[in-house]
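Reminder to self: tokens first, then the designed residues, so the page reads top to bottom the way the pipeline ran.
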């Protein structure tokens, strides 16, 4: 990526100039270290710390990654909604759900990207949003030794295109996302639960999933097999505290509401 950074910048600069019609003064490339033009969308402001205990940012690497993000956005403007650099020097590409598979295909197959591996895939549930699930894939380019995080969004009913056809290793990642959040991936070869039992009801990492679950499993000595039953807890077990049960169950003994006896003064 270091060798192709000038190419990324020139292509993205030309295409973005046609789209947003910036003037020539803003479109000038940064020259020299620390020479950043205010309002230039193609240059990041360097991050410098005076403290010696904080990790120093590689501003040159941040700029190269940002230019690569501009290059991807310029090549696929229909799907890329936003690119951003995190404070941890990580590039994030935010895309529309219908462009999820096309953008991942671009990152995998384009000779200027070559992201041949998926390092991680997960989701986040925010019930207050219209599209409550945020799906994130972290892809790695072994050729250029860089990471990029691709994010999209969906809801309970809208499926996403599986990336199995691009990376077979994403099989278990997508099964885990389906099991924990209930997000559907179409064209997945084996979309089954992977962490919970096949007869499990619900999806544990949804924010609306109860802490006690819906069903419980126990071994029945009479039937000599596992039995699935609706969850039935006594009231005292529903008083959750951030302590071990051995610490707070002592509060439920007989007479625990009685007043404490007065301390006797030493004569």
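Designed residues (267 positions):
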């Amino acid at each position: 990526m270091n060798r192709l950074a000038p190419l990324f910048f020139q292509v993205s600069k030309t295409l973005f100039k046609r789209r947003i019609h910036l003037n020539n003064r803003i479109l000038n490339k940064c020259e020299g270290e620390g020479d950043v033009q205010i309002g230039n969308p193609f240059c990041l402001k360097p991050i410098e710390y005076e403290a010696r205990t904080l990790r120093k940012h590689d501003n040159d690497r941040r700029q190269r990654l940002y230019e690569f993000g501009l290059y991807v956005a310029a090549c696929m403007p229909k799907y890329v909604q936003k690119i951003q650099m995190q404070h941890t020097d990580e590039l994030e590409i935010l895309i529309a759900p219908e462009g999820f598979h096309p953008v991942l295909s671009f990152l995998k197959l384009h000779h200027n990207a070559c992201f041949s591996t998926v390092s991680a895939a997960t989701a986040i549930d925010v019930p207050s949003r219209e599209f409550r699930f945020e799906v994130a894939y972290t892809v790695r380019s072994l050729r250029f030794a860089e990471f990029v995080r691709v994010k999209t969004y969906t809801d309970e009913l809208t499926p996403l295109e599986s990336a199995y056809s691009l990376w077979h290793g994403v099989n278990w990642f997508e099964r885990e996302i389906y099991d924990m959040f209930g997000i559907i991936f179409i064209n997945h070869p084996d979309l089954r639960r992977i962490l919970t039992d096949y007869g499990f009801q619900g999806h544990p990492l949804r924010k609306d999933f109860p802490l006690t679950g819906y069903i419980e499993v126990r071994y029945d000595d009479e039937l000599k097999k596992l039995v699935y039953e609706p969850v039935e807890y006594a009231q005292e077990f529903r008083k959750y505290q951030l302590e071990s049960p051995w610490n707070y169950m002592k509060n439920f003994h007989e007479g625990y509401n009685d007043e404490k006896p007065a301390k006797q003064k030493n004569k």
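Residues 15-38 have pLDDT under 50 and may be disordered.
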